């Protein structure tokens, strides 16, 4: 039995769930945080969404069937929670989700946890101009170096579609970065 299969078995058993969940959090907390942070930009928002993600994972682990990797299943939850957060924020601010993302980018300069320079900031602004799916694909490939196969599991789409989205996203970002 693989380590992941063993962990899932323990997560799904009432007797070992708490201990197994602590192991799961220590294994994936940082990777999920940065995945969420790449989508939301804000440290505080990423922390909140990470917490919500782990709550959902904990509550729904018995629904995990093993059709995909545990990692892919958790990333899908984190991605959906991030998108839900953006949409709620947009609704609260009465703006589109694109405008909410633009506001998040503008707030990066005042975020004490943002350590990027002007180039990083410009890259984040370029990413924010992309449609939501292209943003996700670009972030997952560029920042997290995920394989297309894993991305296809997470985003529930084909590898070919993801490669095309990434290629288009790169072209748009290059155009944005060279347009000054």
From TrEMBL:
Keywords: Sigma factor, Transcription, Transcription regulation. GO terms for molecular function: DNA binding; sigma factor activity. Residues 121-173 form the RNA polymerase sigma factor 70 region 4 type domain. This is RNA polymerase ECF-type sigma factor. CDD domains: Sigma70_r4. GO terms for biological process: DNA-templated transcription initiation. It comes from the Bacteria. The lineage of its organism: Bacteria, Pseudomonadati, Bacteroidota, Flavobacteriia, Flavobacteriales. Belongs to the sigma-70 factor family. ECF subfamily. NCBIfam families: sigma70-ECF. InterPro entries: RNA_pol_sigma-70-like, RNA_pol_sigma-70_dom, RNA_pol_sigma70_r2, RNA_pol_sigma70_r4_t2, RNA_pol_sigma_r2, RNA_pol_sigma_r3/r4-like, WH-like_DNA-bd_sf.
